[in-house]
Every structure is written in structure tokens, then in C-alpha cells.
Amino acid sequence: MRRRRWVGAVWTIMVCSALVMAGCSAGGDTPQGGADGKISFYSPETPDMTKEIGRAYEQANPGSNVDVQYGGTNVIVNRLIAEKGRPMGDLWYGGGGILPFETAEDKGIITPYTPKGTEDWPVKRNGIKIRDENWNWVGAEVFVLGFIYNTDKVEKDEAPKTWDDLLNPRWKGKFQMSNPAASGTATLTVMSQLMERGGEKGWKYFNRLVRQSNAMPDSGSAPSQAVAKGEAEVGVAFDFMAYEMQARGEKVDFIVPEKTPILVNPVSLVKDGPNPEGGKAFIDFMLSKEGQELLAKWYHIPIRQDVESKTPLTLEKVMPHAQELDVDWAVENYDRIRKEWRENYE
């Protein structure tokens, strides 16, 4: 495999529970193919958000029927592999970053498509890879890994600013991160720190960090919920989790660490899906201004530069914090690192 390093490399894998059907169709008789037919949409992202995107597409394309199917990234990938030869899905959106999409290329479960309006997109923008070289996937938004904290319990100036700050005795028993054996958010945390520190020093870091935690739930969003409830004071989270909670009135805020992963979250066309024209049309919609405004509504940083983020963060603001990551190393070592985590901490 060709070796690549990118500043702010964009990746992570989210591992969740069994796949749950969450259809959002308009009902009634609909054509079976094309932009106005049935479109099967696989995603591990927030079900309410993906349902809303599906409904918006249906409204823009009368007669269409969007079937949103939710599941963890690994569950979706395994399903796509099992369905090879007779795929049931048309497009796949999200996985917490590019890593599962990079590995999917070799599995033969996604296929190239150049969405409308992206023809002149470079492979990288501002040091971040925003699309596959062969258009097997295209970034839909930008994620930032960092720290969520409870503003009733923690003053902003005392909140952790670096990953080393999490080791401060101040946070012992008041910190949460999710379980890397199940959560892509935590897998990203572990692999990024092992890259930054090296294997021996990296594992020593986690030996100490695990002792700081009062719980390690399987869900990547659970630490954010614990912080909002006051069950923890600080947690590891993606930016949109914190800002979405903040908008609902939760007493939380977000810190971008001095050096941290910056991620593009992709969308891709399923290879040999039953409705490729519908899949292409839906991807076009997600990258349109209307689709990007929907993502921004859910406090995601849109990939389009003409759509404003609802959070204080922009790509330009977070890029100085971007950690250099080796995506090829992550692909090659993902299973080994998760195995070592289980052996060390479970």
C-alpha cells in the first residue's frame, strides 16, 4: 500500500450495536428506480438528523422514497460485504471519518462517483484530504476531536487544553472516554495518541488515563451525555456533540486541544446498488447548499465554503490544531490496536 501522511488526516471508525431499520419514507406507490424512486441510505450518524435529510430529499423530489437504515460503521461495512453480488443499499454516509471508506475500497463495496459541483475539488484542501483520488468517496463535513466540559462545574480557564492535561489529578474520577473496543471516537483517541507518542509511551499514557476515568461506556456519545448530566466533568467528544447539546440548553462547552485529529466525514455510492441513479442524486443533494445547510443545522462544520457553520468553529480556525496522522498505519494496525486494548484493559 502506498504510504501517505496528511496534516489533519481525517479518519476514525465508529463501532455500534446491531443494525436498526429506521425508515423515513413518504409511503404510497413510488417508482422503483431513479432520483424519484426508492433510495436505501445506510448511515451510523444521528438517526434524527439522517431522517430529516431523507425527508428533505423527498420533499425536493416528489415521488421519492428514502429508506434510512441506521447502524454502527462496522455493522454497515459487514453488511455491505455480506450483500456483495446483490447489494441492498444505494449510498453510505458517515463513519466518523475516512478510515472505513479507505479500507472499503479494497473490499469492493463502494464505487466512484463525482458529485455535481465538486468536479474541480482538489484531493486536499488546507492540508485535509477532502476526497478520494479516484472519487470513491467525497467529504460531506468536518469533525474535530476534543474535550466537552460541564460549565457549572468547570471554569473555562481550568478546562484541559492538551491531551496531557487529562492526566491532572483534578480530573481523577471526573473524566470519561468511551470504550475503544466498541466506539470509533475512542478508537480514534487511542490510535492518534499512539502515533503521536509511539507505542511504548502511548500505552503508558493510557495506563494512566484509564485510571482517571469513572466509566468507559460503549457509545461514543455517552461521555458527552454524562458530562451534561454532571456524572462527569470532562469527556472526550466530537465538536458537534457538544454544540448540539449547548443549543438545547445543556451547560456544556467544547475545547479544541492544542494538537488533535481533524476529520472529514464522507459519503459514497454503494457498488452495484439497486438504484445507482437515486444514490447519485442523493449524494448530490447532500453536497448541495440545501443539504449542507441541514448538516450545519445539526452543528456540523459543512464542507462547502459558502455555508456557514452554526458553531464557533470553522476549518480555518481549527487547522492550526490539526495533528499529523498516518492513515495507512491506522488501516494496517486497526485490528491489532483494538486487540491490544482488550488484552490490556478488559
Automatic annotation (TrEMBL):
Entry's Gene Ontology cellular component terms: outer membrane-bounded periplasmic space
Molecular-function annotations in GO: thiamine binding; thiamine pyrophosphate binding
Signal peptide (from-to): 1-22
GO process annotations (BP): thiamine transport
PROSITE patterns: PROKAR_LIPOPROTEIN (PS51257)
Keywords, comma-separated and alphabetical: Signal
Domain of life, source organism: Bacteria
A family per Pfam: SBP_bac_6
PANTHER family, sorted: ABC TRANSPORTER SUBSTRATE-BINDING PROTEIN (PTHR30006:SF2), THIAMINE-BINDING PERIPLASMIC PROTEIN-RELATED (PTHR30006)
Protein name: ABC transporter substrate-binding protein
Source organism of the structure: Paludifilum halophilum
